Amino acid sequence: MTPTTFNPGKGAGSTVGIAILGYGTVGSQVLRLMVENADEFAHRTGGPLEVRGVAVSNKEKHVGTLADELGLLTDDARSLIKRDDVDLVVEVIGGIDYPRELVLSALRSGKSVVTANKALVAAHSAELAEAADQAGVDLYFEAAVAAAIPVVGPLRRSLAGDQVQSVAGIVNGTTNFILDAMDSTGASYDDMLAEATRLGYAEADPTADVEGYDAASKAAILASLAFHTRVTADDVHCEGITNITAHDIQAAKAAGYTIKLLAICDRLKDEAGHESIAARVHPTLVPRNHPLANVHKSFNAIFVEAEAAGRLMFYGNGAGGNPTASAVLGDIVGAGRNKVFGGRAPGESTYANLPIANFGDVPTRFHIDMTVVDIIGVLAELTKIFAAHGISLRTVRQEEGTEKNARLLVMTHEAKESDLAATVETLKDAPSVIKVNSVIRMVGE
Amino acid sequence: MTPTTFNPGKGAGSTVGIAILGYGTVGSQVLRLMVENADEFAHRTGGPLEVRGVAVSNKEKHVGTLADELGLLTDDARSLIKRDDVDLVVEVIGGIDYPRELVLSALRSGKSVVTANKALVAAHSAELAEAADQAGVDLYFEAAVAAAIPVVGPLRRSLAGDQVQSVAGIVNGTTNFILDAMDSTGASYDDMLAEATRLGYAEADPTADVEGYDAASKAAILASLAFHTRVTADDVHCEGITNITAHDIQAAKAAGYTIKLLAICDRLKDEAGHESIAARVHPTLVPRNHPLANVHKSFNAIFVEAEAAGRLMFYGNGAGGNPTASAVLGDIVGAGRNKVFGGRAPGESTYANLPIANFGDVPTRFHIDMTVVDIIGVLAELTKIFAAHGISLRTVRQEEGTEKNARLLVMTHEAKESDLAATVETLKDAPSVIKVNSVIRMVGE
Fold first, then answer.
1. According to the model, what pLDDT value does residue A1 have?
2. A81 vs B6, higher pLDDT
3. Does the distance separating the beta carbons of B346 and A342 come in below 8 Å?
4. Nearest CB to A154: which of B43, B153, B307?
5. Per-position DSSP letters for B198-229, written without gaps between them
6. Domain for residue B67, yes or no?
7. For residue A5, is pLDDT > 60?
8. Which end of chain A has the lower number of beta carbons within 10 A, N or C?
9. ipTM
10. A296 at the B interface (CB within 8 A)?
């Protein structure tokens, strides 16, 4: 959508008034850095940035903090946003419904908004973009994906002249920490989740991370930007890492792979040349020589393939107070400059409006780990099952089993998700298959 | 410098007229992609992009090309630039003096400029930025550093709210190809240069690449952006890779390192707290577990450390017609949007105006490879020499030598470049030192 209102700017040297909504880890870092480096920010923005207030739900909780000392605390976010001397609203509260109301109110009042809220952007991008367009103001959200790693900006601007084919990202630090620790120690999922919690990498309730919901929000944002199409979190097929076992990791390692939770966004083309897109989050076998395999601990990385640019990767800290504050502050300078000098950042771009593919039609490859009856002829039977579904096998490895059973590890060639899924269902009922232990998708060759 | 003129924009849907100067590998890809994807570009820019002409020095050479078929070729660049229906000039000629004249003429005529010309930007950024500011137009040069890898944009925008501490980049694909091939095959510099030439990674005259001049231009641009200070190629200390031997590579490998040609930009602070900056290009020992060590073949990568963001890395194709065209096209969309909707991109930012440190004052570490007389007491003598210059040793390894000589490999702790250089001079005259074979700096621990 193109802007309908034009913002001529306040003029060089004008003050930009800022409201900060939320004063947790990110909000307090944002305020501290703005106060400490006020001169730098004035130079970079073209005029001084002045914080008019910091809205919190309970002022008592923040007594003695910098915001309190500066007399900035308020528990009336709605009034703060509407103040005439506020040009720019920074939303770092989290959650969806309450920040949605505040952000919409800010945009409709002609204030530009900077948010770090991936869940909000992934759920309500259309509504937010329309409000920003109608008021001719900016909506920035670099921090919503992979914190300080510039990826929203590069997709919106640097790659604006290119055609993105795919994006594959490690966009959740908690799950990467757990999987990386399982890979390096051989320990179980439960033990490494406990370790992540102990070290502060996982929250008390880790559901949003380990079930992939956080990554799915980011996948929706990345797919929207990459393919100029509106994609929400509901459009993203999502599987978490809770079923990954130490044996899965060990088997992957033995075959030259590691397991990562990836957010994958693909541009697809059917035989008739019709394009569609797919966004998905699931555990994925990645070859150990792939750049994404070497992203360790809680680091994030986004791998982009574009028609002209080829392969690009962006790597860094994907979470935490300081890295998130860095991204928020970069957006504040950007939105602030537009308030001073006029102009607007590129807004939502949805002109391509590509259909979302059925998940069953997405091409992928499976790694299937099953326990089979160790008798002569079992391989022939299984091969027939794969062939009947049109699936060809890439590798078959046999692990030593217990007693008279064997563990069979099969990697398929690329096929439709639905055909692969149907094959797995048939395998489960095959006489020679005792159990299908795990099914993990593969990328990257 | 802040803009003095304000550009209100032509309005949504307006056509942006474009002049392309130069029709080599990059120029022809830019034209092709603009023609093939015209609808996409119109959506992304907010109005159609129309190429008004392609300026070349000799039209005869380009008969039958797309530019010829479209009737766009002209040998009069000066007139093309000044046409009233040209809003945006794309400079992909290369060289310095002639493109400088054309780019200045374009900016002074109120045309925004997109250039891929690192040598021009590194040599004349001040003059170009002033001309752009006076006319209130944009100067974009994402392609000047590492082609399609977004790094100019991220430094200018995404990290605008952060404090960059250092930038270390592999910004020259030719030298990375040669050093990577030496590392993986054990072959000599001359052999791998010949291989690079044969495969098209090195030009017939490889001087600008192998002597580090190309990387020095990029270092100047990166340091200017990172530190908000004007840095030209003349401010960059520059050493190439022509003296790197197979033995250097093998010794580095044995110690867990690889050798990369790095462009290093540092923010320094003396005891009194005064800040300065240094930009340098030289072969560098990088630990093999450092992300930059895993950048192979002709790929580029830029590693950035910032106060709040922490460590970031940008990786991808740093050269070639298509990747360079991708960056140029992204800039065309950005500059085109500003022509349509008004506003300007962030211009040159030099407010910090930090002094350039003397190269002798830069802290670094040395790896010194020398042949010594293999007698008892030689280690004691050498240790004294280092101590006399205030240098402490980190590791000392002895290789087996020929006859009665030994090869000694010393890694120092961090010290001032001038003290390390003086130590090497003293070593050369020491009775027990037969030869100082090589001195290579180190980074990354």
1. 44
2. A81
3. no
4. B153
5. HTTSS-SS-HHHHTSHHHHHHHHHHHHHHHTS
6. yes
7. no
8. C
9. 0.93
10. no
